[in-house]
Design brief:
Strand order of the largest sheet of chain A: 1-2
Helix content of chain A: 40-55%
Order of helices and strands of chain A: HHHHHHHHHHHHEEHEEHHHEEHHHHH
Strand content of chain A: under 5%
Oligomer: homodimer
Number of strands of chain A: 6
Radius of gyration of chain A: 26 Å
Number of helices of chain A: 21
Distance between the termini of chain A: 94 Å
């Protein structure tokens, strides 16, 4: 009977071990609050100071801190904060008359957001002018915002002058921009995003966690504009989030960011429309991949598995990012290179077409006999062409977030630029305005105005 | 001891069974000749009659026969043989002066190739003209070819008139176009492919079987032209197989397929450049996927596993085709739709630009005072623009074989077409030649000339 006793005991031990493993596995996959996570310290609601959250979440916080010092670049992007205008002086021409023609640096890591907005040449220039910069410019730069929005309301926040609001802002982007204290769940914090989703009949509180791992990025990584005298932060999504939808919205509103000098064109500047561009039927989005899957991949520190908060290009650590799904990382990096090189080459051709077109329109505007109807048509086509180009150009992936959409948009932007040029020549009845390749013939090339 | 005897016997049986299974598995994965396959009948070298090969390979042959009757269509392609000109009358304009403006039907299945070449309106028209059609037109239409090339040599074959050569041709495309009798290995049979590979320093006999599962398709699915008076079948690959490489080759040679009437443009017609387009760094090609993997997927009939020879669009049986690698076939079909819809919409915009441009060039040619230098530049740009468009348009996948390449090429084709239009207007100093959207304003729309 001794044998049977051993067998029975072994059986019981095996069953208990399997059961325990199951329970542990279940708990491991629960968010902190659901597995009865006991925080070391209590975090006040809307707490701006990320270092306090960091006591409870040391791994996330330690990786988040790296966004301060990481300055590695990729072929077309990265975190060094290089100058777009020096890399590609065509943009000095395309943004003439607007601060972006003087100072247009690539974005750095999240922890540098506050410092960079406080020192960017664009705002320094703007603040010295009579028209003072609105507080709206802080909307995506600080974890002080959720508390300030709760206290002041967004309308008041946006109305406050940049210099005045700045006195209450001392934190860069941080935990409170995406997380709810206590539960740590991902939340929409930017009232402009809340309103834009509502306008589309969407309720983010019904979204899955995986959906939220993309939607929280839309707190900032979107196209937006400052509405009305109160500079009210608004996303132009009422008709949808495709570039054509946003153009229709801006046209209806007759909105402009600035007027192109000597060309009379009401221009639009695209911001950083990663969310709209990525969700426009891109292959990764349709496959259910979230922003965080690639930009905040799961990593390990000893026994702990957590989402890295050192947000940066997946190309800088492709094994960590792409390798979560793709077993053939070398192949995948090769794909990114092919796609980005093709998009870049096509983007430069669009810029050449835009430079030719804006030169023609300036020529037609200078001609007192130009046909005003044709000229208006030329200006309208140019406005669309440059905004479409800018959606691809300002978007931070050199097309990779949605390759087909990038190339489709660039093809149409070039088409519209060339049509604008032809309309300008027709308006002035002046075939000399049809010159092509103007940028290439420029010597010296334009430099950023200081 | 009886117990041990049983155990030992059981062990021996298990070892034998595992060994036998291993041997069977090994043999199953060997090509026929290597596993000592004994054919039921001997097939003569270069045997044109596929039904004889079918005795030894009944599964492959039975599926091959289906290419005769399969007539299903997809959104943009398929096997029904529909008219491209009726679906998209812009092409009636783009191919004006060339037989493709009168008769341009989609390709049907392999077994219909001979019948279709013998009855196509293009050749009927051509044969009635004084310039008689060369035998070269049979090059991709019959399994009689390998034997005829061996007997006559390709130069003599191509020189023979179509009507005369046709008396010796009674088989459609078949086994002998891709396989060697006896070994059944995949081989290059078309001397033009052999020569084109040699010109690039490539030796196909060193290729892997997986590489050959793409290269044999290049026996036919390529861009080609008829060289010199002997109409010698030639692939324009000397500089490479990208569209720009082929254009440089044709320009150097000052080759033209026809001259566009009233526009004086030496035009090029793209054929069916699936091989060049797919191998231009497409994602599937770079991932090691062969043409046969998708178009001739492995299927089962009882215990037999074989490559289906019913070559058709993977979209008609996506579970069989895409499902070999992709577990999420519904997602994959959705991707194809997104990509093809975007490429189609962009392609139509390129066609609109081409129609505007050719109209302007005809206007400038009709103007006796037009500047000849500028006109020549306009004509050269147009030649390139239409060939680039045609590489995407004539290629049988509506861009899916290489989406980024399709959209990159179309963007540049539109750019060049618009530049051609501007140069024509400059040449004639006539801004009225800058009209845009001419096709949309046509009423009635063009119909295929009979």
């Amino acid at each position: 009977m001794k044998k049977y006793t051993i067998l029975i005991l072994t059986g019981i031990i095996v069953i208990l071990a399997v059961g325990l493993a199951g329970v542990l596995l279940f708990l491991k996959n629960q968010p902190p609050q659901e597995r009865g996570f006991q925080p070391l310290v209590e975090i006040a609601p809307l707490e701006p100071d990320s270092s306090k959250w960091g006591i409870n979440f040391p791994n996330q916080y330690a990786t988040f801190l790296k966004t301060k010092t990481n300055s590695a670049d990729t072929a077309y992007g990265g975190s060094s904060g290089f100058s777009h205008l020096e890399r590609d002086p065509r943009q000095v021409i395309l943004f003439a008359g607007y601060p972006f023609s003087k100072d247009y640096n690539d974005d750095r890591g999240h922890m540098n957001a506050l410092q960079d907005v406080n020192t960017t040449g664009r705002l320094v220039l703007d603040r010295e002018s009579p028209k003072r910069t609105p507080g709206t410019c802080y909307s995506c730069k600080s974890s002080n915002n959720p508390a300030l929005w709760a206290e002041m309301g967004m309308a008041e926040y946006d109305k406050t002058f940049f210099g005045d609001l700045g006195k209450r802002i001392d934190q860069p982007i941080g935990c409170a921009n995406c997380h709810e204290t206590g539960t740590m769940r991902l939340i929409v914090t930017n009232p402009a995003l809340q309103e834009a989703l509502e306008a589309q009949g969407k309720d983010w509180t019904t979204f899955t966690r995986q959906e939220m791992r993309t939607v929280v990025c839309a707190n900032c990584h979107v196209e937006y504009y400052f509405k009305g005298d109160g500079k009210y932060l608004t996303f132009p999504w009422e008709n949808g989030t495709r570039v054509e939808d946003m153009l229709a919205y801006y046209d209806e509103l007759q909105f402009k960011d600035w007027e192109y000098p000597e060309a009379g064109i009401p221009m639009l500047k695209a911001q950083h429309p990663e969310y709209e561009f990525y969700t426009a039927d891109s292959t990764h989005y349709k496959a259910g991949v979230s922003c965080a899957d690639c930009h905040m991949p799961y990593v390990r520190d000893g026994a702990a598995k957590f989402s890295s908060h050192d947000v940066h290009s997946p190309l800088l650590r492709p094994e960590q990012a792409c390798g979560q799904c793709h077993s053939d990382v070398t192949y995948v990096i090769g794909r990114v290179k092919v796609i980005q090189d093709e998009v870049y080459a096509t983007k430069i051709k669009t810029e050449d077409a835009l430079v030719d077109a804006i030169t023609a329109i300036k020529g037609a505007v200078a001609n007192p006999n130009a046909n005003p109807d044709l000229l208006t048509q030329a200006q309208a086509k140019y406005r669309h062409a440059q905004f479409m180009w800018d959606i691809v150009s300002a978007e931070n992936s050199m097309g990779f977030h949605n390759p087909e959409e990038a190339l489709r948009i660039l093809a149409e932007a070039t088409n519209l630029a060339r049509q604008a040029q032809m309309l300008a020549a027709q308006a002035a009845a002046d075939p000399s305005l049809l010159a092509v390749g103007i940028y290439d013939q420029m010597d010296p090339k334009p430099v950023p105005a200081k």
